[in-house]
Write a structure and sequence with these properties.
Elements lengths: L1 H14 L5 H6 L1 H19 L2 E2 L1 H8 L3 H10 L7 E2 L6 E4 H13 L7
Antiparallel strand pairs: 1-3, 2-3
Length: 111
């Protein structure tokens, strides 16, 4: 889990380290590569659909926090309501899209 989390952090730092829009346009293939790597990493560990507890683990929040966000309809990846014991399932691509969207909203600081 820690290795997966650190890989995501490194990829997100790389993705958002562009200095200007031109550099971003030149590196559009890196964005596609980043998305593919993130999706492949999650699929390898969890499969195509994640439970609420797995999704919370990936996002670094508690299951309770994820459930509260889901109920309020705010700040939560899109999910599928499933039949049976599983409750709610989160498709891998929705989790990756959510992580990238949240990362774009972060404030960039320079040391």
């Amino acid at each position: 889990y820690l290795q997966l989390k650190s890989t995501f952090k490194k990829l997100l730092i790389l993705y958002f380290s562009y200095k200007n829009k031109e550099e971003y346009k030149m590196n559009i293939n890196n964005e596609k590569e980043l998305i593919l790597i993130m999706i492949q990493s999650l699929i390898t560990k969890y499969g195509l659909l994640l439970t609420s507890s797995q999704t919370a683990e990936v996002l670094g929040i508690s299951s309770r926090t994820l459930d509260e966000r889901r109920k309020s309809g705010l700040d939560c990846p899109e999910y599928i309501e499933s039949q049976g014991k599983k409750g709610f399932m989160f498709p891998v691509q929705n989790i990756v899209e959510y992580q990238l969207k949240k990362s774009k909203q972060c404030v960039k600081t320079l040391f």
